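User: Can you help me understand a structure? I only have the sequence.
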Amino acid sequence: MQTINIAIVVVYLVAMLGFGWWGKSRTKNTSDYLVAGRRLGPLLYTGTMAAVVLGGASTVGGVGLGYTFGISGMWLVVAIGTGVLLLSLLFAPTIQKLKIYTVSQMLTLRYGHEATKVSGIVMLAYTLMLCATSTGAYATIFVVLFGWDRALSIALGGVIVLIYSTIGGMWSITLADMAQFVIKTIGVFALMLPFALASAGGFSGIAARSEAEFFSITGIGLQSIITYFVVYTLGLLIGQDIWQRVFTSKTPVVARWGGAAAGVYCILYGVAGAVIGMAASVILPNIESRDDVYADIAINVLPIGVGGLVLAAAVAAMMSTASGALIAAATVARTDVVPYVRSWFGRGPGIDPASDPEGSDAAAEDGHDVASSRRWVLGLGIVTIALAIVVQDVVAALTIAYDILVGGLLVAILGGLVWKRGNGLGAGVSMAVGTTVTLATMAYLEINAENQYDGVYANEPIYYGLLASAAAYVLVSYATPATSASVMAAWERRVAGILPDDDGAGPAGPPSSTGHRAR
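Assistant: Let's start by predicting it. Here is the structure, written out as tokens:
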């Protein structure tokens, strides 16, 4: 039985490599490699957006929370789904029209101020840690399934993600994500949920052997629920890995409603995971670590072969997040961080979002061709594999990066999208103040920590960072001159979908098959 489960997972891993080669055939230029040519329709876009946000925390972690806290274990994934919904309904159409590659480029377009470019460094740290955490997560499945050493499991899984991501870029990742989306849907909704519920005797069987609190939607605690929404919902609104998926959508309508569908799917996924965990608490009541619940159900409860598909679904969830974070890190490093560092030495910029929105031949002339992007994905992929192997507490590093992302950058990014009076100096100061307050609060709590939930893992750093950042943004923006009329005029044209090479003629058309916008 175990041999068949292993064979199914191995077939899945080989298929991922196949998607890498398939995606390579569709990659002709930088736009194809980084944002899938900006031409994903509703089906591909919905699937890839759902795949990238539903990783190990949502799949294995969500089931584990249901095992411990009952139906209220759904809130972590519900918060993620809410973030996707809000981003899609409120901001995605605007983001899609900008025709850029990174969050930092949006800040440059909106504010026209050098101070905002430091955001790329924060975003790079966040995406690297997210990729390293996901890499370490799916390695735990390999340890259980194959009996390998942790380092070997990380290296092998990381190499598979690295190969298909490097070969075809976003097209390979999109195709792999669609396969992963299908596998997750079948594995969780069609197989694991009904089998687990049937084995537990349905909801009545769970109720008969559980306390009433297990069916309370607030059983996990109000503080935990609020934390999930502050950290995950707000983080999803501004993460490069999520924005880069928005950039792949074909039209603003696809970005809005395809993303909204993905958000609803995520919420249902969270409920399903919690119910599976509840059923597992009745079937397998003595599991010591809640992170083992998912794998234990797959191996000990599900029929032969079905368990292999369910394990493949878990690996799929983690690999989709890892690959999305990897190409996001490479894009930020190549597009934002390197040009920013170069500017210190008087060197030229990289991809200019104002002059080369489609990533066409001009980008290749600047060195941002597909080969160069591949080298960055390859190099950073090796770095994340090493991080996942060497750094034991990657979760702490990810928590720090996530706190800085939300506490330091959220106000400047969302403020630029919704408040015209906000200016570049206000944005720069808000990022500096928010980051400083977040780190200082974290350091203070770490020094005085009495348990594992203080210090790095405390909630206060984000709260204080956000308040300080918002206050600085508003005060400095009002106290200093507004953003120049020329910068705002260029921004308004871009938000309307008028690209620089339109010469004011009208809204931008869709990119042609070669990656250039049709004229």
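Now, to help you interpret it: The two ends are 58 Å apart (CA to CA). The mean pLDDT is 86. Let me know which part you'd like to focus on.
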